[in-house]
Amino acid sequence: MTRTFRITIAIVAMMLSVSATVWAAPHESDYNTWIGYGCGQANPATDARDTFFGYNAGYYNDDYNDSSGVYNSFFGFKAGYNTGSQAYGVDNSFFGANAGLANTKGMYNSIFGAGAGYSLQTDNDNTFFGRRAGYSTKGYNASETASGNVFIGYYAGHDNTTGAYNVFLGPNAGYSNTTGSYKLFIDDCFAGSACDSPLIYGDFENRTVQINGKLAATSYSALSDIRLKKNIAPLETSIDKVMKLSGVSFEWRSDENPGRGFEHGRMIGLIAQDVETVVPEVVSTQRDGYKTLSYDRLIPVLIEAIKEQRKLVDRQEADMAEMKYRANRQKLEILRQNQELYQSRLAIDSRKEELDRQVKAIAELESKIERLGAEIAKLKSGHMSAGLLSAH
Q: Are β-strands 127-129 and 110-112 bridged in parallel, bridged antiparallel, or unpaired?
């Protein structure tokens, strides 16, 4: 037997000797394991099947019947101190000083961390992991339950009271969410107020997720199966709607909104309030009153606007083609008329030349006649002077 083994045996024997005097359980049990002063002190059960380790751990654990105060595991100073004091309180696991200290009837809770689930009383199925995670969670009655929460990270869900079925991941995540249920907070917060705008916020009931930061993805697809849609109708006057939209450049108020992950520098985009008056289907209002704009939902409007624009262009091109055809017809008619005019002019010119020749011929004939008349007159005059002609 080695020296180390002998020392280990001695330590275990000493612990068993000491524990026999300090847990001071008032009732023996074949199924309970209690180690620590006052742990399970008020438990009268002999078969509760509980494991308590630490000062006053599971102090008030009790079983009013065979289904109460059983299967609990409490480790730490006053862990599960009140569990089972008002019946029920089964299948809980509390690890850490004061973890689940106020729990009375709560069942199926898993709580890890000092002060985690400190105020929990009657609620079930919570998972708290981290120092003071879910510290204030406490359902007041059947209508104000605080069950089914998952808080992971120190101070996660710290101020939550009656909120149920929430998932808070990260230090201080959901710190100031007090009564909201079915919420998702994911962030690494250094102060409670910083998590009012967590990196990722979700609403399980409304199936929505909000990311306060920059998102990059290799691919993205949206569900669009026709079998899931009804009341389908075509978009109309899309080009008129697009003409009413105004693109702008701007800068985010990042200094006034440090928790939203705004980028610095000039950006380009649209103003949600302006778009809402034109295409309200793409604008939503967040829980804090701020407007969001789904740029991807504008794509169908832009597609239809392009198609409408194309129809206008096609119509204008058809009108232009018709006008061009008519113009060509008119041009051909003018050419034909010009050709006729040209032919007519040629005919006129030819006729004029013919007339000019005839006029010239007439003039020449008249000239000949005048010469002949002059010669005849001369002849007459000569004969008369010669007495060759009678007076008659």
A: parallel
Amino acid at 172: N
What is the rounded distance in angstroms from the CA atom of residue 40 to the CA atom of residue 25?
Answer: 7
SS3 167: strand
The CA-to-CA distance between both ends of the chain, in Å, stands at: 199
Residue 195 carries which DSSP code?
A: G
Q: Read off the pLDDT of each residue in 233-257 and give the average, rounded to a whole number.
A: 93
Which of 186, 174, 164, 54 minimizes the C-alpha distance to 120?
164
Cβ neighbours around 192 below 10 Å, total:
16
Residue from 124, 131, 129, 122 nearest 104 by CA: 122
Determine what percent of the chain is predicted with pLDDT higher than 70.
82
DSSP state of 177: -
pTM metric for this prediction: 0.68
> How far is Cα of residue 373 from the mean position of the Cα atoms in its chain?
119
pLDDT reported for residue 83 = 78
Structure-block tokens of residue 20: 């026999």
Burial environment of residue 145 by CB neighbours within 10 A (0 to 12, 13 to 18, 19 or more): middle
Q: Is the separation of the CB atoms in 165 and 177 below 8 Å?
A: no
Alpha helices in the chain (DSSP H): 3-22, 238-244, 272-276, 299-386
The model's confidence at residue 296, banded by pLDDT at 50, 70 and 90, is: very high
Please say if the pLDDT value at position 361 is more than 80: yes
DSSP states of 249-267 = EEE--TTT-GGG-PPPSEE
Give 152's strand partners: 129, 169
